[in-house]
Amino acid sequence: MASDFITNLYWNLWKMIGFPWLKYILRIIWVFLNNCYTIPVYVCYMILFLPVYFLNPRMYFGIEETFFSWLLAMVGSWNYTAGYEIAESGDNLDILKKEHLLLMPNHQSTADVPLFMTIFNTRIGFSNKVMWIMDKIFKYSNFGIISWIHDDFFILAGKNNRDASCIKLREHLLKVFIPKERQFLILFPEGGFLRKRKAISHSFAKKNDLPLLEHVTLPRIGALDIILDVMSGTLSANNITKVVDVTVAYPDQSDPLDLPSIITGWKEPCTTHVHYRAFDVDKLPTNQKELSSWMVSLYQDKEAMLAKYYETGKFPYDMFDKNAQIPTIIEHSGWRYLGLHLFFLTSSYLMWISFCLVRAKISCIF
């Protein structure tokens, strides 16, 4: 026992002073600098291109969407360099992207958003057409100004804000999603992380005779009902045609991948499974009660899939469809990442030089 203790102590001390810690520190510095030379450049370009907005708003929106997709690629490069792979299965997203989609993933950790940024980024022309529905707290993060300019929707969590948020979401879809011709919406129906919502979900389930779920929580349908009402009727020319249920399965649910791990590369390289099941909007229930029952049934399926995965260690991609696409690792383009990093670095340098020159001329005048 003493020998084991000394051995473990030796290796733990070695990790603290050895190369791994240097790697983590260097990654933190790199991600910090990456934010410093990309986000300001994006904002500056959006200001520089403002004259285009007054001449041709649609062209300006197209320029903004392109820059937005490049920023998502930066996040994708964090996953790529840390060795955190994503295996997709189920319905083929490359085929589905020709449709107008509402994607509904389960929500487990702070890695969920970077995960989907990575997935969307690997498909050219996808990430720029996505509108995110996210908690308002995200607006005050480093990426918040990007999402604000991109016109994502910030929802205010809490029971007291639910009705007001639904009204604002309806207005946002009509005033932004439709005019800007966005094609994809991403919504987290659970309304929060699994670890935070599980107890509340169990309490609600017991009071309403609903199933107790362990790997997901009972979904809310308020936002979904609004989206289907606005985006599947006559109000929109670019209607949502399919709802895509997305099941995210991290290798270790008790300690899932999170944003600090992605930034530092602290956790060992791993593979996260992402499974897609597409449903035609015109075949979904239109009655609120029936829609709620359909969603609960859908989340029972997700529960069964995740339970099987964590029990066996093998992801049951064909549990509900024997013809489902087998898990396939997403491929990244390291050259594309390198090119975009060089673009943002060069732009940042040129903008800094321009700022210094302007400042020097102003100093000479005064």
Overview of the molecule:
This protein has helices spanning 2-17, 19-48, 50-55, 57-82, 93-96, 112-121, 144-150, 162-177, 194-207, 222-231, 259-264, 288-312, 334-365; strands at residues 84-90, 101-105, 130-135, 153-155, 184-186, 242-249, 270-280, 325-329. With 366 residues, the chain is of the alpha/beta class. It has a domain at 83-335. The protein has an 8-stranded mixed β-sheet with strand order 4-3-5-2-6-7-1-8, sandwiched between helices. The longest helix has 32 residues, at 334-365. The model has no long low-confidence stretch (mean pLDDT 89).
Task: Please tag this protein with its features.
single chain, 366 residues, alpha/beta, eight-stranded mixed sheet
Furnish the topology, listing elements before pairings:
Blueprint: H1 2-17, H2 19-48, H3 50-55, H4 57-82, E1 84-90, H5 93-96, E2 101-105, H6 112-121, E3 130-135, H7 144-150, E4 153-155, H8 162-177, E5 184-186, H9 194-207, H10 222-231, E6 242-249, H11 259-264, E7 270-280, H12 288-312, E8 325-329, H13 334-365
Parallel strand pairs: 1-7, 2-5, 2-6, 3-4, 3-5
Antiparallel strand pairs: 1-8, 6-7
